[in-house]
Amino acid sequence: MRSSNPVFSRRGFSRDNGYAGFNTAPQAGYAQGNPYAQNPYANNPYAQQDLQQGAPPQAPATTGRMTMDDVVMRSGMTLGTVAVGAIFAWALLPVSATSYGLAVGSAIIAFVLAMIQSFKRTPVPALILGYAAFEGVFLGVISEMYNSRWSGAPFQAVLGTLAVSAATLLVYKAGWIRVTARYARIGMAIAIAFVLVMAVNLLLVAFGVADNGGLRSFGPLGALVGVIAILLGAFFLTLDFKQIEDGIAYGAPKNEAWLAAFGLTMTLVWIYVEMLRLVAIFSRD
């Protein structure tokens, strides 16, 4: 199973280093179409050892393995870097065409750093924190621009992002959403279709075929598209939660916590940007 994040979609927590990855995680409901259904622990050396000893599969009791504390710590560092970058950009860059240009440039640099990391076989903290810093500058500038027109919109967007994240985590941990292979396939098909439609819409707007942003307008249609985008962000979070949970259970190396933090940050940025647009739409007279 792969997440929407570039870093996860290319390799996720794979078996490159000899440990079981997310793609082989056992779970009820995976039987149909799952090559590991009859022996879900076939490619997991830690699970095999547990089964041989007659114990239920669990994370290996060895040092140097990823824990939830590692994920929380790295995620805090990455999101903190985004927040610091956003605060400095908001405080030091006034709303102007120059600031907008810097925001676009920062977004491009952040995207390039994200792509470089996604093609690395191991996480590089400098790349991940660099991505977070430039992404923060981008978010700081656009947040200030939205706030100058719709006062309080960034604050409401932050609250909305936290609410969506908390609600998604709640329903995931409660078992109301089962992250099965079929669930992931359907969700990713919808996500790919959404991205393709948005790309076509961007081209139509650029060539003057669609007015006022087309599907991304600040009207009812734009609000509907924004809601769909936020729901997709929540879907991506469930995949990320599942991958992190399985990585911990099957003994992913400790430094993989940086990948978890990276993926979560990208998803939360997605949700925040869409939430910011949605708040602005509903704040219009």
How would you characterize the overall build of this protein?
This protein has 285 residues and is mainly α. The chain is globular and about 55 Å long.
What's the quick description here?
The chain is mainly α and 285 residues long.
Going by helix content, strand content and strand pairing, the class is mainly alpha
Radius of gyration: 20 Å
What is the H/E order? HHHHHHHHH
Shape: globular
**Low-pLDDT segments:** 6-11, 14-57
For the report, how would you describe the main beta sheet?
A: none
Distance between the termini: 43 Å
Share in helix:
55-70%
Protein traits:
mainly alpha, 9 helices
Q: What is the topological layout?
A:
Layout: H1 6-10, H2 45-52, H3 68-92, H4 97-118, H5 125-149, H6 153-173, H7 181-206, H8 220-249, H9 257-283
Helix pairs in contact: 3-5, 3-9, 4-5, 5-9, 6-8, 6-9, 7-8, 8-9
